[in-house]
């Protein structure tokens, strides 16, 4: 679910915020909790949660660090951060910012669930995040495993094409396509200087109802593909999308992630 244009995905995520939160129960929250289980924030820790969305990993991290710790939850989307603020935890601080340019540093834990592949330069952005952790600090990045969440995108693109004539374009080659299996992902994280790297495959399947199939579109980055359509066009896209999913016998979606984590080596 990497996007070609930063502007497109930002518009999509801003529009998606309420449905994104509704999809959280099915998708973002269990993945966020699994991410926090891997990064392991402790009471009193300072945590940076990059690309925090509505707080799927930031909120469990805030519970883990308690009121003696703090979590900076950073996202470019203001409506997402409004929802983070609604959690009303004193140790959880939401910020609207491009996290690649964030100047905070010395964090005990830096984590990003399903965010790093949106950076215009994924490798440079990820290096920047690693640089925000203290020596000896823990870092964790969650990405989709190869093939995960692809079926909704393919069926949506075909439906939009049928309704509007917009061409079905293939996403440009992207670093994520090279690292979205456990072994290359671990090797890539090591190449960024992390030690004690571990990659957990978090197997996850979503049983599809029609409502959930459509929520996956309206509550995720896929929303950018329908932003700007008229209500009639959107209804037609929804009908066509659900019809082709059913015709292809798709009753569940692969939502498996790779949770990569490691430590920042202390200087000798
Ligand atoms: C798929 S969502 C994941 C959100 C959250 N981590 C979760 O797991 O529910 C990706 C998020 O990354 C944010 N994002 C993308 N690029 C960003 C950047 N450069 N700085 C801050 N946030 C960014 C988007 O606005 C969006 O909320």
UniProtKB/TrEMBL annotation:
Domain Methyltransferase: residue ranges: 47-137
GO molecular function, one term: methyltransferase activity
Gene3D superfamilies found in the cross-reference section: Vaccinia Virus protein VP39 (3.40.50.150)
An example Gene Ontology biological process: methylation
Keywords annotated in UniProt: Methyltransferase, Transferase
PANTHER family xref list: METHYLTRANSFERASE
The protein, known as: Trans-aconitate methyltransferase
Native organism: Microlunatus parietis
């Amino acid at each position: 679910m990497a996007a070609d244009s930063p502007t497109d995905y930002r518009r999509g995520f801003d529009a998606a915020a309420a449905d994104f939160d509704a999809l959280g129960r099915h998708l973002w929250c269990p993945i966020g909790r699994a991410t926090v289980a891997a990064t392991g924030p402790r009471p009193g820790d300072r945590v940076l949660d990059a690309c925090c969305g509505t707080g799927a990993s930031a909120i469990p991290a805030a519970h883990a660090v308690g009121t003696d710790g703090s979590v900076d939850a950073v996202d470019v989307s203001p409506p997402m951060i409004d929802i983070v603020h609604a959690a009303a935890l004193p140790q959880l601080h939401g910020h609207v910012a491009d996290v690649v340019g964030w100047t905070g540093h010395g964090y005990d834990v830096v984590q990003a669930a399903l965010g790093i592949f949106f950076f215009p330069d994924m490798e440079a952005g990820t290096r920047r995040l690693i640089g925000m952790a203290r020596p000896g600090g823990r870092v964790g990045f969650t990405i989709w495993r190869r093939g995960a969440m692809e079926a909704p995108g393919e069926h949506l693109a075909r439906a939009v094409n049928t309704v509007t004539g917009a061409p079905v374009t293939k996403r440009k080659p992207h670093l994520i396509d090279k690292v979205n299996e456990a072994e290359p992902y671990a090797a890539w994280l090591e190449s960024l200087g992390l030690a004690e790297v571990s990659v957990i495959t978090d197997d996850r399947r979503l049983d599809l109802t029609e409502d959930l199939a459509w929520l996956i579109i309206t509550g995720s980055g896929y929303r950018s593909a329908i932003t700007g359509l008229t209500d009639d066009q959107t209804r037609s896209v929804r009908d066509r999308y659900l019809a082709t999913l059913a015709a292809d016998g798709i009753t569940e979606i692969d939502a498996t992630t790779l949770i990569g984590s490691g430590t920042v080596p202390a200087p000798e």
